[in-house]
């Protein structure tokens, strides 16, 4: 299976419309790949909180329309990163879109863990409620977004739902880049799954981005990693390795679930 991760430079001097047009062309250039992955909130920048409301769009808005056409033109499965979605109730969500090679919207995932603690995304956007997996001919995808990477229980839920390849679009800051690589490898090892984590380059609202998109196999080996700038990271991998790894080293079968919390001393 051939995957291309498009590490987009989100330049504050470039309009959303211009960037959308440019990224559409980049996706079309990936004809011949099986899967293409874009970063989190690449239209606005993950830290450009002040732009979320103004640039929010419905699920089937301009980004949906251009990405659907690009997926169809290239004949690829396209994880189109995430957009600031305005729901039918007016609430904002950080929502990922997955398109089939025919351009159909196959799945949408609203980010469950919102970053910012008591500000930014955490207060501006609603939280998703649903785990999302999608069966492809070669593998089952599990969808997560950026800050989700810090919460292993979400990925356990995806694996329990059949996921073998975990997609993580992100807008991860440079100052925590070491965590990015470490967590991507940890999620791969503990879940015996491929991790394809696609970040952004550039600077979002004064926050330099980590870049360094990464593909990790089920043994935690890094198959490919990008640098800091805009880059197309392409890798060939055998998705069946997730199943064979789980058969050869069946650690997932030894999980002990439902343990009671420790008793407090009397």
UniProtKB/TrEMBL annotation:
<dbReference type="InterPro" id="IPR036526">
    <property type="entry name" value="C-N_Hydrolase_sf"/>
</dbReference>
<dbReference type="Pfam" id="PF00795">
    <property type="entry name" value="CN_hydrolase"/>
</dbReference>
<dbReference type="InterPro" id="IPR003010">
    <property type="entry name" value="C-N_Hydrolase"/>
</dbReference>
<dbReference type="InterPro" id="IPR001110">
    <property type="entry name" value="UPF0012_CS"/>
</dbReference>
<dbReference type="GO" id="GO:0016787">
    <property type="term" value="F:hydrolase activity"/>
</dbReference>
<feature type="domain" description="CN hydrolase">
    <location>
        <begin position="1"/>
        <end position="239"/>
    </location>
</feature>
<comment type="similarity">
    <text>Belongs to the carbon-nitrogen hydrolase superfamily. NIT1/NIT2 family.</text>
</comment>
<keyword id="KW-0378">Hydrolase</keyword>
<protein>
    <submittedName>
        <fullName>Carbon-nitrogen family hydrolase</fullName>
    </submittedName>
</protein>
């Amino acid at each position: 299976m051939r995957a291309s991760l498009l590490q987009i430079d989100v330049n504050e001097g470039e309009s959303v419309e211009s960037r959308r047009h440019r990224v559409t062309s980049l996706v079309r250039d990936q004809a011949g790949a099986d899967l293409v992955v874009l970063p989190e909130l690449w239209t606005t920048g993950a830290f450009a909180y002040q732009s979320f409301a103004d640039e929010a769009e419905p699920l089937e808005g301009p980004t949906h329309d251009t990405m659907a056409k690009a997926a169809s033109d290239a004949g690829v499965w396209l994880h189109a990163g995430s957009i600031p979605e305005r729901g039918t109730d007016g609430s904002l969500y950080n929502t990922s879109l997955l398109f089939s090679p025919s351009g159909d919207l196959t799945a949408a995932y609203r980010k469950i863990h919102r970053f910012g603690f008591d500000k930014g995304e955490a207060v501006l956007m609603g939280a998703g409620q649903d785990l999302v997996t999608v069966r492809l001919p070669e593998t089952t995808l599990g969808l997560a977004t950026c800050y989700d990477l810090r919460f292993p229980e979400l990925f356990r839920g995806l694996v329990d739902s059949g996921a073998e390849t975990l997609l993580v679009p992100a807008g991860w800051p440079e100052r925590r880049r070491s965590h990015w690589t470490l967590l991507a490898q940890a999620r791969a090892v503990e879940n015996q799954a491929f991790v394809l984590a696609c970040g952004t380059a550039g600077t979002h609202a004064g926050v330099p981005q980590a870049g360094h998109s990464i593909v990790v196999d089920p043994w935690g080996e890094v198959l490919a990693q990008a640098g800091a700038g805009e880059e197309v990271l392409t890798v060939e991998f055998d998705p069946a390795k997730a199943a064979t790894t789980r058969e050869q080293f069946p650690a997932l079968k030894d999980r002990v679930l439902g343990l009671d919390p420790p008793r407090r001393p009397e």
